[in-house]
Amino acid sequence: MTRRYPFLRLASLFVAGMVAFAALPALAQEGEAPVPPDLSDESVVGVMTRAVDGFVRPGYQAFETSAGTLAQAITAFCKTPSQQARETVDAAFRQAVADWGRIEIVRIGPVLDDNRFERILFYPDRKGTGLKQVQALLQKENEADADAAAMGSKSVAIQGFGALEYALYGTGAERLSAKPDSFRCRYAAAVASHIEATAGALAAAWDAPEGVQRDWKHPGPQNPVFRTGKEAITALLGILVHGAEAVRDQRIETFYRAGGIARPRSAVFWRSGNTWTSIDANIEGLQTLFDTSGMADLVDPNFRSITGNVDFVLKSLRRIAPTVDTDIDKAVSMPEEQRKITFLLVNMRDLILRLNTEYGGAIGLGAGFSFADGD
Amino acid sequence: MRPTARLDRRIFLRMAGAAWLAALGPRASFALSRTDAVFASGYMARDGSFGIAVLAEDGAIIDRTPLPARSHGMAFSPATGHLVAFARRPGTFALAIDRSGKQEPVTIAAAEDRHFFGHGCFSPDGHLLYASENDFDAGRGVIGLYDARNGYRRIGEYSTYGIGTHDLCVSDDGRLLIAANGGIETHPDFGRTKLNLDHMEPSLALIDAATGALVERHALPAKLRQLSTRHIDLDARGRIWFACQYEGPRNDLPPLVGHFGTGEDITFVSLPEQTTIGLANYVGAIAVNRREGLVGLTSPNGGRFVVLDAATGRVLREESLADAAGIAAAPHGFAVSSYDGRFAGRHAEVAFDQHITGLAPHC
Q1: Are the CB atoms for B336 and B298 separated by under 8 Å?
Q2: Is the distance from CB of A256 to CB of A268 less than 8 angstroms?
Q3: Given pLDDT bands bounded at 50, 70 and 90, which one contains residue A119?
Q4: Which chain A residue is nearest to residue B354, measuring alpha carbons?
Q5: What is the dihedral of CA A349, A355, A359, A365, to 10 degrees?
Q6: What are the φ and ψ backbone dihedral angles of A306, each rounded to 5 degrees?
Q7: From the list B190, B195, B354, which residue is nearest A375 (CB)?
Q8: What number is the ipTM of this complex?
Q9: Which among A24, A224, B337, B359 is most buried, taking Cβ atoms within 10 Å?
Q10: What distance in Å separates the CA atoms of residue B292 and residue B295, rounded to the nearest whole number?
Q11: Exposed (0-12), middle (13-18) or buried (19+): which is A183, by Cβ within 10 Å?
Q12: Which pLDDT score is estimated for B275?
């Protein structure tokens, strides 16, 4: 049973109020514009260092740890099935989903190498390709498919969270407890181990002192990633803008669009009831990166309302996301839950505009960040 | 059969497009028909709304046509006076305006499982519109064929023999289509994320406009596989000039511009090192001024505007221009725009998009 939030009926008014609030500083300083910061190579080192050391690296490290815990929990459950062991698996799965969700917003850098992103989470599986592969695999019970070490050379659809969720929560998962060391359970453990290995590779890539972290922290003419401070800050803002767009377009609107046809079976992690765990973690990741990096400090102090508004919208989103019903069938059909999702969509759009246009403009990215993301 | 999410979006766009077209009225055609209308460019207004600006030679905005979302490149047919603006990739709509005002504006919805990819061109007689599109499930570029005389009905498609197709041109005789296959794979499920930077396949393809058959395909050598071939224009000799964006290490200095003729190998222009650095490994637009034998390049990332001699490839002019965006041939040299509202020396309270389309004969 979820709590009722009558104020959600005023979702659109809430955003309108925010816009009026945001306009106040502009009126007070008519004709003025924020003075853009100096984005020289040296001046961005602090922000980039905090982003890498305070968010990206801890994010991948935490994910590696929770993926390892999950693999251990599943292995133990397979050997000795019990209600308690199953509950430990459920908790570990939820933690791993949350830890991935926080760092998932980073869609740049080593995670794009070797299809690591898709290896961790193959989603959306719009035509059920991955599901069919996993179902066939479970039907055949070929021992080679339960080998974590060999998993990397196979289809990305059978080696990530999607496959793991189906093995643990999909049709037939109730039989996992029926006998020790079933093929399905060992396959699930192998997938979790493979996710841990991929997470470990990502953590290692970011932890190497002379690797990508150095390139991100110290832009300069010889840097293979960012030649200038402006390029580095643009990429950092890109994580936030693209991350927010992904939450709206690729995590929520894939199963619910106001006025459209709801598709609860298309929601990420719907089988395990972790849809909102994942989405809330995404938003938490955006919030943590924005706060930890100190990006707000780059904005002209006379226009701090710009970053204050970003903070306000993020907090509003985080207040609502965990309260939506975890049963996605109910979430998309009950008016009260629909209003919450609509609230999230409306305010996510607002967040994108504030990051892209207001914040981007304030730090000297002309018409905003994504406008400069040319073609 | 249950419609897909993308179909929903298209239905929504059609509905939104209908209301928007009704509000548009004859203004768009009127603006285009003015004799002083020389250029067109997409823009974003200060309130975040989008549109097409029609501009005079001196950069003054003559009129604006609102659009429901951001546009990118445009196609103009001098033969029919039709102008088509394409949504930014991955786009689901294009808008066609008849300069004479004889036809109502038409919204073109992207076909199921296809997205517009920002550019297109007309056949010389203006009867066919060719649009660069993405078959995202198959991960391949296609050219959508639209009948301009029949409400822009989609009548077929050709392969571009590559992936990540972006710019598209047609030869002056209409026989060849030239596709800039940037080589970067994207998918709507991942927004604008570049999915294959470690195994890109850039190429330039010449395609028989009558049959869709491949005539020539120029794949970039392995050492330049991260050099995305994205924009093209034709010079007076029929040579194809292409401009690139490099996805490899930022401290590399790859060639960024080149040319080739039918039956020839690709030739890269050897730019001075400082010019290459200034272009920041990212040429956003290219234009040829045929009458004066010039090739113009812009780089928003580098804040640079460069003019080359088309005959020799020598740099004739190089200027800093913050947020340099579009470029098009002008009576003398080039008209250049910027993200912060500059156009041919004037300033407007809009952000101009990445491309300018010439509407006058000299272009």
Answers
A1: yes
A2: no
A3: very high
A4: A374
A5: -110
A6: -60, -45
A7: B354
A8: 0.81
A9: B337
A10: 9
A11: middle
A12: 97
Which residues make Cβ contacts (< 8 Å) with residue B104, sequence separation at least 6?
A: B21, B98
A161 within 8 A of A198, measured Cβ to Cβ:
no
Instruction: Quote the minimal CA–CA distance from B174 to chain A in Å.
Output: 26
A286: helix, strand or coil: helix
| Single-letter residue type at A14 | F
Pairing of strands B71-77, B82-87: antiparallel
CB spacing of B5 vs A263 below 8 angstroms = yes
Report the DSSP beta bridge partners of residue B91.
B116
Tell which residue, B51, B55, B47, B94, has the closest CA to residue B75.
B94
- Is the pLDDT score of A1 beyond 60? no
Q: Where do we find the tokens 């459920």?
A: A90
* Residue B268 bridge partners (DSSP): B258
For the CA atoms of B292, B298, B302, B305, what is the dihedral angle to 10 degrees? 30
In A, minimum Cα distance to B165 occurs at A375
Positions in chain B short of pLDDT 70: 1-33, 361-363
Cα dihedral B244/B248/B250/B255 (nearest 10):
-40
pLDDT in the model for residue B287: 98
Under 8 Å between Cβ of B143 and B157: yes
The tokens of B225 are what? 């596989």
User: Whole-angstrom distance between the N-terminal and C-terminal Cα of chain A?
Assistant: 47
Which residue does chain A place closest to B250, by CA atoms?
Answer: A224
Q: How far apart are CA B71 and CA B40, in angstroms?
A: 12
pLDDT digits (tens, 9 = 90+) for B3-27: 333 334 454 455 455 555 565 555 5
pLDDT digits (tens, 9 = 90+) for B169-189: 999 999 999 999 999 988 877
Q: Which two tokens stand for residue A31?
A: 């004709």
Q: What kind and span of H or E run contains B109?
A: strand B106-109
Query: CA-CA distance, A330 to A265, in Å (whole number)?
Result: 12
Closest to B271 measured CA to CA, from B315, B324, B311, B207 = B315
Chain A environment of B325 (Cβ under 8 Å): 374
What are the chain B neighbours of A123 within 8 Å (beta carbons)?
189
- Per-residue pLDDT of A14-35, as tens digits, reads 453 444 344 333 434 445 789 9
Give me the half-sphere count of Cα atoms (radius 13 Å) on the Cβ side of residue A195: 35
